[in-house]
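User: I'm new to structure prediction. If I give you an amino acid sequence, what do you actually give back? Let's try with this one:
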Amino acid sequence: VICLSVISGAATLSPALPRASEHLKTFTAWCNSHLRKAGTQIENIEEDFRDGLKLMLLLEVISGERLAKPERGKMRVHKISNVNKALDFIASKGVKLVSIGAEEIVDGNAKMTLGMIWTIILRFAIQDISVEETSAKEGLLLWCQRKTAPYKNVNIQNFHISWKDGLGFCALIHRHRPELIDYGKLRKDDPMTNLNTAFDVAEKYLDIPKMLDAEDIVGTARPDEKAIMTYVSSFYHAFSGAQKAETAANRICKVLAVNQENEQLMEDYEKLASDLLEWIRRTIPWLENRMPENTMQAMQQKLEDFRDYRRLHKPPKVQEKCQLEINFNTLQTKLRLSNRPAFMPSEGKMVSDINNAWGNLEGAEKGYEEWLLNEIRRLERLDHLAEKFRQKAAIHEAWTEGKEDMLQKRDYETASLSEIKALLKKHEAFESDLAAHQDRVEQIAAIAQELNELDYYDSPSVNARCQRICDQWDALGALTQKRSEALQRTEKLLETIDQLYLEFAKRAAPFNNWMEGAMEDLQDTFIVHTIEEIQGLSAAHEQFKATLPEADKERLAILGIHNEIAKIVQTYHVNIAGTNPYTTINPQEINAKWDKVRQLVPQRDQALIEEHARQQNNERLRRQFANQANVIGPWIQTKMEVSSTLTLPLPSSFSPLQHIRVGWEQLLTTIARTINEIENQILTRDAKGISQEQLNEFRASFNHFDRDHSGTLGAEEFKACLISLGFDIANDAQGENEFSRIMSIVDPNRMGLVTFQAFIDFMSRETADTDTADQVMASFKVLAGDKNYILADELRRELPPDQAEYCIARMAPYTGPDGVPGALDYMSFSTALYGESDL
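Assistant: Good question. You get back a string of structure tokens that encode the predicted 3D arrangement of the chain. For your 839 residues, that looks like this:
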């Protein structure tokens, strides 16, 4: 009798042989379950192994190794040689064979043959089973107990009577393949049905041959332990292989899911960046368009469009820009956590490129706003000047109406001496009036010139009207000179002229012109923007009012001349037509215009007072705005310093309102960045397995050495921080080399600064472990059945559909010498996942 005991990993065959007849069927079925993989089987276990050929083939199948080349001769010596080769191979696996020789096997000794097969079963089917560092037998028993623990009426304590009712076999099958057995319908009192159900299902669906008979198990008080162990070990190997495949598939699914999620994040970033850059590209030309409008209404519409851009169109883009930075930082964090290479956006779509484009947008926006305000002020000035030009031109044209006809009359040719004198005096009065109007003509020309310089849209019509006035003025000057010369030639024929009429005409004409100018100035509209401008107008108006007493004296003097004329006419009974021949101005007109001037003065006073009050209110509002801006500005700056230690200085050329608006936008962006940084730290903590206490310790150490609150550490500060956390960095050459290696990791760009995120990443790598490319390759090798390549059908069988197709589309064809058509290279694919090669 021969049996095997496992001591310190070595198998020893000793004389304690079980009954051979009870094991014959079990061992034969077990051998055939492996031999059929090689396309053969045995009928009689004691006869078919005598030549050693099938025995060597059995060992090659179950070990996966090649044995020495067998002898093909039929002589006894050849058979003994083959059996010895098989026994030597068994001994090479740490099994000590006792009392078994090649001659007994060749002679067909049944007990020795069965003992040898039991030795093979223990070494290759049971010995490698280990659960929680137990022995082979204990490990197999513990595996059975764990798998059947949830099942009612199943209590596995050994490899004999615990299996008599068949529920243990059914429970193992149902635990791994519940669709094959309806466990709820099984009864403990029907062991034959239970055992036959388990044996039939195992043989049909699990490729486990029927090694036992239900009658043998039910009909004996204590079923044979070795037969049960042999049969149960087949279940263990069948299901443990599926478990390995499932574990490998899960690992690959996890890695592929991470890769697919990262690729989607990259696509989302590229699209969002492209859309934002395209919007900036379309918007900047609109903001740089400086084509002025001709009317105030059109410019007001442009200003309204710009306000809509600020209020409606730009804020969503500010959010998109902020979200883009958040997505980029989140993606880079996930890539670092999954050991993937950093994401490099397409050319021109880096975060810095977007920030540069955004800065160009802000610059164009500021210039456009200043241009709009200047254009509106220019149009206001133009409208005022144009209205003033029209008023002065209308007054001048009304004055010149009929003057050319008057100057071209030849009435002096038939006039009497007194009439000639009158015509001459009248002409002298006209010349005075003409000289008085010279200033108005110069003002009209100056206004037209200013309108041209300011690019007034209706400059052609203004120039044409101004040219007509100037041409007419030149014609009047020429006609006046010609008539004056004609009258002077006939002056010798005149004797007397009524000096009083002449004096009246000379004094009334400029006074009348002064009153007309005063009325024009008093009715002139004004546009001011500051309190200093209205104060200047008020001062000029007060100076004008100071001249009224002297003007009143002049008026009384002129009226006195007229009264004297009337007195002389009445005294000397002078025969006149009743009107002054030298002027058309009469005392009633002077008095009416004087009353009009006196009436307009208080109206002008009231208008100036109202405008002064309005400007004072505007000044109060400006000061109120300045006070509120001085409060909200420092508040925004304080919140930005709380949210982030990195601040961006605002340009000194910004207006207060723009300063507050840009500060508010930067505050929102800084808060969003801080939230994203905290979320990335939480993501790092969870993914790397870092506890909250460790993360708090890392942050406290970093902040302690970040004395300037810049959010970064210099090289010496970082070295002191590492030492405070327990890193042994000696002050020698070896310590300096180690610190240089660490600095190359946390500061790859050699800026001399270490950010908090780089510090956390380094500490995470020092305290946690992640999946590697080697682990993924090992998982693929399990799915491929230990081959160096994998087939598309194997991927579709083991992985979810979308991830299987993902692998098939990206795996390169396998080019090794052992490849088959359709073979895929999973090794290069696994290294590419971690950035060690290209997909």
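You can read the tokens as a compact description of the fold. Here is one thing that stands out. Residues 653-684 form one domain.
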